[in-house]
Amino acid sequence: MTNDCDHQSSCEQTIIIDDSEPPVITCPPNLEFECDDIGDFGEPIVTDNCNPNPLVTIEVVETINDCTERPNTAGIGVPPKLTIVRTVTASDGGSTQSAASGGGPNTVQCVQTIDIFDTNPPLLVGCPTEVTACAGSSVVFTPPTCTDPCGSCSVGCVRSDGNPINSPVPPDQTVSVTCTATDECLNEAVCEFPITVSDDPDCVSSIPTVSEWGLAVLTLLLLVGAKLSFGRRTGSVST
Predict the structure, then answer these.
(1) Residue-range domain boundaries for the chain
(2) From residue 142, how far is each of 34, 70, 136, 176 by CA, in Å?
(3) What is the phi/psi pair of residue 134, to 5°?
(4) Which pLDDT value is given to residue 239?
(5) Degrees (nearest 5) of the Cα angle 96, 27, 35?
């Protein structure tokens, strides 16, 4: 400042802007989904009092659980097939940080957990409504298959009499077949159908098997060979 005699004096003031507060972060809520109906995980909300564009990173860790475990304790459900942990880190030390001094960058984290369950059974495809077999003949049918949106599955079939699936069924017995599809988490889908035995001599239970086709072809070849041989003999006598 200057007085009337042009004498001057001055002073300095130092203002320090200290950014010691981390950003404010809000993670999406923890979520649960069925594996065939996974929705949006959501995004974190981050604000900072000094940096309008804080740096946000998301680290994702996936853990495959043993979903075949079936707890016996009441009130405890099956474990998820997959657990996803999203760790969100926000920092005010991004490239657009304001010209504030002080120790930094300031960081803050939050964690979101997403559990993916598989509690729905697989889908059985092509289960017969009934199988017809000739009396005394092997039972032949195309077993059903299965599909599962969450992974692999398999199908097993058993007969009610405990005998192998393809073994003949006596005419005086009633036999059914139960096919069960099982997925990776031991969820099951079941179908059942009867085997009807026909004593009609002209009944056809199924397409001939490879061995049956082979026997038919061999018989035909023998007949053709015998006919050719008979023809040659007949020709030699006539001359």
Answers:
(1) 24-117, 123-207
(2) 32, 33, 19, 15
(3) -75, 145
(4) 37
(5) 125
Burial class of residue 28 in the structure, from the number of CB atoms within 10 Å of its CB (0-12 exposed, 13-18 middle, 19+ buried): middle
Cis-peptide into 143, omega within 30 deg: no
Strands 123-125 and 145-147: antiparallel
Residue whose entry in the numeric block shows the structure tokens 């069960």? 180
The token pair at 93 is 């030390």
Among candidates 202, 198, 204, 209, which has minimal Cα distance to 135?
198
CATH 2.60.220, applies to 24-117: no
Please check whether residue 150 is in contact with residue 36, taking contact to mean a CB–CB distance below 8 angstroms: yes
In the block, tokens 């959501």 appear at 42
List Cβ neighbours of 155 (8 Å cut-off, separation of 6 or more). Answer: 124, 143, 144, 145, 146, 179, 180, 181, 182
Give tens-digit pLDDT for 62-97.
Answer: 999 999 886 666 667 788 999 999 999 999 875 444
Domain 123-207 sits in which CATH superfamily? Immunoglobulins (2.60.40.10)
The phi, psi pair for 235, rounded to 5°, reads -65, -40
Residue 10 pLDDT: 81
pTM of this prediction exceeds 0.85: no
